[in-house]
Specification:
The chain is an alpha+beta fold. It has two domains: 6-119, no CATH class; 172-370, Histidine kinase-like ATPase, C-terminal domain (Heat Shock Protein 90), CATH 3.30.565. 61% of the residues lie in helices and 10% in strands. It has twelve helices and five strands. It has a five-stranded mixed β-sheet with strand order 1-2-3-5-4. The chain is rod-shaped. The two termini are 54 Å apart. The model is unreliable at 381-385 (pLDDT under 50). It comes from Streptomyces luteireticuli. Pfam families: DUF7134, HisKA_3. This is histidine kinase. The chain crosses the membrane at residues 12-33, 39-57, 69-92, 124-144. InterPro entries: DUF7134, HATPase_C_sf, Sensor_HK_TwoCompSys, Sig_transdc_His_kin_sub3_dim/P.
C-alpha cells in the first residue's frame, strides 16, 4: 500500500471541506419544493456528514466508496458533494475500464427517473441536467488529472533515461580518452623498459637516454591520470579547467616522441590550411595517428611506419597509418585491452567519418576519411591532451 504523504492528507482535508460546503450551499435550491419532516431532514444531513467523513477512505477503496455514495445519493441531497469527490477519485486513479463502469452507474438514475415520472416538471428537468453536468465535470476533471499525472511520470522517466544515457556516454568518453592518452604514454615506457631488460650491456648514453624517456613518460602518464581522477571527483555541474587540445600542428611532435622511442616513422603532412582546420577534426586526426603509432609499437616494434595526412576544406581529410606486418610475434608483446580500435571507430563515427583497418598486402593499414567540419559537435573532455 502506498504511504500517505502530508500532501495527500492536505488534499483529503480539502476535498472533505469542499464536499461539506457544496452540500450545504446547494441545499436551499435542491430542497426547494420538497416537504421534509425534521426527522427526514436530520437523517439527510446525517447521511451527508457520514459521506463526507467516508472520503478519508477514498484512496483505499475508491470504487466501493463511489458505488455506495452513488446509491445513497439517490435518496439524500447532502451526499451529492461527497459523491462528486468519489467519482473524481475513480477517474483520476483507476483504469479507464473501471471508470466506464462507474460512469454507467452514475448515469443510471436518469432512466429510473424517467420511468418513475412519465411527466417531468421543469424543476425535475433542471435538477437532472444539473446533476449530469456536475457528474460530467467530476469525471472530466478526474480524467484530466490522470492524464496529467501520467504525462509528468513519463517526462520524469524520460529525464531519468536521458540522465542515464548522458552518464553512460560520459563514461565512454572518459574511457576512450583514457585509453588514447595513457596507452601512448605507457607503450613508450614499455618499449624503453624492454630495451633495458634485453640490452643490459647497452652503452651508458643509451641507458641514460632510455631512463629519461621512461621518467618523462611515467611522469606525464601520472599527470594525465591525476587530471582524469580530478575530473571524476568534481562536484556535479562543475566544469573542469580547460587544457589545450591537440591539433594537426601537434602531429610532428607526436611523431618525434615515437622516433625518440626508437621507431622509424615517416610523416607526410599535405593538408591545405592545416592551421585553420576545425578543432574537433584536428583532435580526431591526432588521436587516429596516436592510436596507429601505439598499435605499431605494440605489434610490430621493428617495422617502419608511414603516416600520411592529406586533404583540405573541399574534399575533407584522409588519414593513413601503414606499417609492415611482423614476421612473428614480438619477443615481449605489450599487453592491451583490445579496445583501442573499437574506441577509435566510435570517435570517427561521432566525427561523421569512416574508419577502415586491416591487411593490405604485407602491411597493416589504418585509414580514416573525415569531413573537414563534422555536422555534429564532437565534445572533448577538458582533461584530454
Amino acid at each position: 500500500m502506498t504511504r500517505t504523504t502530508t500532501r495527500d492528507r492536505a488534499a483529503d482535508l480539502g476535498f472533505f471541506l469542499f464536499a461539506g460546503a457544496f452540500s450545504v450551499l446547494t441545499a436551499d435550491n435542491a430542497l426547494a419544493g420538497r416537504e421534509l419532516s425534521e426527522g427526514a431532514l436530520f437523517a439527510d444531513q446525517l447521511a451527508g456528514g457520514l459521506a463526507c467523513a467516508a472520503l478519508f477512505l477514498r484512496r483505499r477503496w475508491p470504487v466501493q466508496l463511489a458505488a455506495a455514495l452513488l446509491v445513497a445519493g439517490s435518496f439524500s441531497h447532502f451526499v451529492t458533494g461527497p459523491t462528486l469527490v468519489a467519482i473524481f477519485t475513480v477517474a483520476a486513479h483507476r483504469p479507464p475500464r473501471v471508470t466506464r463502469w462507474t460512469a454507467a452507474l452514475a448515469a443510471a438514475p436518469g432512466p429510473l427517473l424517467l420511468l418513475r415520472q412519465p411527466e417531468l416538471s421543469e424543476s425535475a428537468v433542471a435538477s437532472g441536467i444539473t446533476y449530469y453536468a456536475l457528474v460530467t465535470c467530476a469525471f472530466g476533471w478526474g480524467l484530466y488529472t490522470r492524464s496529467r499525472h501520467r504525462l509528468i511520470a513519463e517526462l520524469h522517466d524520460r529525464a531519468e533515461r536521458a540522465g542515464t544515457e548522458a552518464r553512460r556516454q560520459a563514461r565512454e568518453d572518459i574511457a576512450r580518452e583514457m585509453h588514447d592518452v595513457l596507452a601512448h604514454r605507457l607503450s613508450l615506457l614499455s618499449v624503453h623498459a624492454g630495451a633495458l631488460e634485453f640490452r643490459p650491456d647497452a652503452p651508458p648514453e643509451d641507458v641514460r637516454r632510455a631512463g629519461e624517456v621512461i621518467r618523462a613518460s611515467a611522469h606525464q602518464a601520472l599527470e594525465d591520470l591525476r587530471e582524469i581522477i580530478g575530473v571524476l571527483r568534481l562536484p556535479t555541474g562543475e566544469d573542469a579547467p580547460e587544457r589545450p587540445q591537440p591539433t594537426l600542428r601537434d602531429l610532428p611532435r607526436l611523431v618525434e616522441e615515437s622516433r625518440g622511442a626508437g621507431m622509424r616513422v615517416d610523416l607526410g603532412l599535405r593538408v591545405d590550411d592545416d592551421g585553420e582546420a576545425p578543432a574537433a577534426t584536428g583532435r580526431t586526426v591526432y588521436r587516429i595517428v596516436q592510436e596507429g603509432l601505439t598499435n605499431a609499437r605494440k605489434h610490430a616494434p621493428d617495422a617502419a611506419v608511414t603516416v600520411t595526412v592529406g586533404g583540405g576544406p573541399a574534399e575533407g581529410l584522409v588519414v593513413e597509418v601503414r606499417n609492415a606486418l611482423p614476421q612473428g610475434a614480438p619477443a615481449a608483446a605489450i599487453p592491451g585491452a583490445g579496445q583501442g580500435l573499437a574506441g577509435l571507430a566510435e570517435r570517427v563515427r561521432l566525427a561523421d567519418g569512416r574508419l577502415e583497418h586491416g591487411r593490405s598486402g604485407g602491411d597493416f593499414v589504418l585509414r580514416a576519411r573525415l569531413p573537414w567540419a563534422p555536422a555534429r559537435h564532437v565534445p572533448a573532455p577538458a582533461w584530454s591532451r
